[in-house]
Amino acid sequence: MKINNVSTAAYSSASNASRTNLNNRNANQPSFGSTQSAGRQAFEWLGKHCNIDSNGSLTRAAFFAVGTMFMLGGRFFESRDNDEKREVITRDVPAVALSAGGAPLINRAVAYMITKKSGVPIVTSGKKFSFKDTAFTSQSQLDNWYSELKNADNPLINLSEMLERNGGNIRKVMNKFGFTKELDAITKEKDNAGILNALKDAQAKGTESFKALENAVKNVAKDNKVLKFAKNAQASVKLGGIGFMAALLGYFLPRLNIITTKNKYKKKLEQGKIDQATYDMRMQRKSPVFRVSNGILSFHRASAQKTFKNMLNMVEN
User: What mean pLDDT is predicted for residues 151-170?
Assistant: First the structure.
């Protein structure tokens, strides 16, 4: 976090001297063994991962830690029975986990697969393309990659190297641009390594075929097919992730808890361990979040509807 964004050059000499004296004192401090070192490293690791960002927001790790300890912990210990404790574990813990880190991981996994399948990168990668080292791209990054290439430095080679680095397929991208003939005039290779070598060799020789393909790349339309595909794919991954989380957390997990509770108390009813009134009460309390009535999807619990009707009757009376 920045406190004062000012230059401190005038104090650099004094600061350096102070740091030197401090380092000398620290060097003379006695060591208390590897136990303290390991404990300090663990504490620093925890502090690093459970920190607050410079804009005041919690990091994902800090959000998960706070949500698990305080929100879920409180709900778990305040649960009225084992059924509610189970619901905290099977419904609320996945909700916090997905919110904290699961959603970005899902987006990255889907984007990684789309990149491999289509050959059009919508992820950024490190030195080598792998799922571990990839990150989900932004729409502005896609603009930089696939449009406005006329002013770029060495656009054809740089574009091809970017595709290779981020898991794309040079031939597939050139085909989608509509530059199949221009690329075939240089090489018939299909793998990235072979195409890159041929392009660099043609550039070194200054061939007309290389100039033709480079000019075609420079003059791609701002809203070209590759950019449209990449942006639509990136947006679809985001919307799909939101839809998946909404369905999982809003319907499937609550429904799973309802079915589990229903089967549990139905068995107890059949065995004579509870009476019908107790069974009905349990089923009313565990009514589904989503109900379909006359083809209309309702987001209200049956118990909430009944309570609302009772409130109206009280007002009328």
Answer: 94
CA 245 to CA 17: how far, in whole Å? 55
Query: First-to-last CA distance in the chain?
Result: 59
The 3-state DSSP composition of the chain as helix, strand, coil percent (nearest 5) reads: 70, 5, 25
- Can you tell me the distance from the alpha carbon of 265 to that of 41, in angstroms, rounded to the nearest whole number? 50
Strands 135-136 and 296-298: unpaired
Concatenated DSSP letters of 260-308:
HHHHHHHHHHHTTSS-HHHHHHHHHHT--S-EEETTEEE-S-HHHHHHH
Distances (CA, A) of 198 to 209, 288, 313: 11, 62, 82
The SS3 call for residue 28 is helix
Assess contact for 64 and 100: CB atoms under 8 A: yes
Residues 190, 146: contact at Cβ < 8 Å?
Answer: no
Q: What is the pLDDT of residues 77-110, one digit of tens each?
A: 777 778 778 877 777 777 777 766 677 888 889 9
Convert the pLDDT of each residue in 24-49 to its tens digit: 544 444 444 444 566 676 656 555 65
Query: Tokens standing for 226?
Result: 């590759």
Helix (H) / strand (E) element for 298: namely strand 296-298
- Residues near 160 by Cβ (< 8 Å), separated by ≥ 6? 170, 192, 195, 196, 199
- Predicted model pTM: 0.62
Burial class for 111, CB neighbours closer than 10 Å (0-12, 13-18, 19+): buried
Task: Write down the number of H helices and E strands in the chain.
Answer: 17, 4
**Which residue, chain included where needed, has tokens 């070192």?**
37
